Amino acid sequence: MTFQYSYNSPVGKWLGFVAAVWVQAISGNNYTFSNYSDALKSLMALTQLQLNNLSVAKDVGKAFGILAGLASDRLSTPVILLIGSIEGFIGYGVQWLVVSGTIKPLPYWVMCIFLCMGGNSTTWMNTAILVTCIRNFRKNRGPVTGILKGYVGLSTAIFTDICSALFASDPSTFLLLLAVVPFAVCLTAIVFLREIPPSSTPAEEKEEVKYFGVINVIAVIIAVYLLVFDISGTHGKVFSQIFAAILLILLASPLFIPVHLMVKNFIRSNSENFDVEGNENEFVEPLLVKKEVVVVKEENAAEMEKRVPVIGEDHTIFEAMRTLDFWILFVSFLCGVGTGLAVMNNLGQMGLALGYTDVSIFVSLTSIWGFFGRILSGSVSEYFIKKAAMPRPIWNAASQIVMAVGYILMAMAMPGSLYIGSIVVGICYGVRLAVTVPTASELFGLKYYGLIYNVLILNLPLGSFLFSGLLAGLLYDAEATKTAGGGNTCVGAHCYRLVFIVMSIACIVGFGLDILLTIRTKNLYAKIYANRKTKKSTTAVLS
């Protein structure tokens, strides 16, 4: 007897999910620009404005994620992953060639194109991963999204810490890692990640929850491990190498789940007596009922195609955009992630304005607590849907009001308020990302989810432009004083006070929209709860 598995088995499904986790753990390269931006600036003799525009070109790549969404409804998961991996390999590979001195610096507009390609590559990876995993584990969408988005939050720290531990933060080597590692990991995911039928019994669903809990624990251990390494100061070469080795082992440890399932199946196949004729409790669906159902489906097929879908059914992007619920979700998402991005993009200037010379701790706090917000909110929101039919958007509403309070504290500029604000923003930003993704799939279905997801995340570049580029930039310049070199600077609590007040108002608006969506979707989540409860009762009777 040999160890075997098929792609459609639980072993195959969990191998695919582990591969998806690995892809997400290396797909946060959009957030690593600061690790090599100085090298680009010096090699290409750029001004700060030109360097900032290179960063904008990287973020513009996310706006083209709509292409990945369109492709997700037409191409298979392996093809989408392959496109993203090749695009990232080319985009970051060319940047490595420039920074390493292998080729001469390219024209500015050409570099913008390759940075845009690098930024866009992750939209293909994320679309393939999220759409496929939510379809495979559709009864545990919250934990799936929380785990995957949580690893995206950790990916920046994973890349940065491994590079600094092994290669002394060399920007050339860092870019080489960005080009090669995601490409290799995506090729691995191409082998294992497929769309597989979801769990069909409460026992299978319960087993999934148990395994998601294991992966959650592993993710928390990795987050704490990275945080301790970051705040423990400088390290020697040997210590850094040991750190990197242990980190890689921790990243590989979710493989325990499919290996455990494979061993369990192997033992079961040797011990069970497969006597299907003697199984008196086997439930056989009456053929008459089955035929009647088929006839009814055929008769109503044309009518179903013409009918406008209701919330909870599959929507095309155009059908979704004709509903009020879509725009409530869209605008509330903008209020949350837009203001959160404004803080993350301006933490450096905010810290300097308040007299802090080292602002890296605020970046770390936002990143680590953002991870906890993502990974916990997915599981908690799923638990309360199953136990109390609580609509998932209520958690978005809670995050919005907490974020508004955080901005008010930051506007008051009391001692330690920036520490508190960084933690609050990190948690609430993580909650918004982890909760909105499964909410959209529950409201508008999974058939066209890839495109719907990518339209929603247009809020990332849009929110960054509105709240960071316009609001924070214009109001900061209005408070700043000009310097001799032609720039400007601002020191004091007044520099960002009005920015925080406006963003707190935006969050209150988002809170109201999320409460409205909670009320409007109450019946939908009641149906989801009732369907799950009925299925459990039916299974208990038949068993």
From TrEMBL:
Gene Ontology CC terms, in alphabetical order: membrane
Residue span(s) of domain Nodulin-like: 13-259
SUPFAM superfamilies given in the database record: MFS general substrate transporter
Keywords: Membrane, Transmembrane, Transmembrane helix
Membrane topology: Multi-pass membrane protein
Cited Pfam families: NFD4_C (PF23262), Nodulin-like (PF06813)
Transmembrane segments: 79-100, 106-134, 146-168, 174-193, 214-232, 238-263, 326-344, 350-372, 393-412, 418-439, 451-476, 496-517
UniProt entry tagged with the keyword Hydrolase: no
Chief location: membrane
Alphabetized CDD domains for the sequence: MFS_Mch1p_like (cd17354)
Domain called NFD4 C-terminal: residue spans: 319-525
Annotated Gene3D superfamilies: MFS general substrate transporter like domains
Location(s) in or outside the cell: Membrane
Annotated protein name in UniProt: Uncharacterized protein LOC104217799
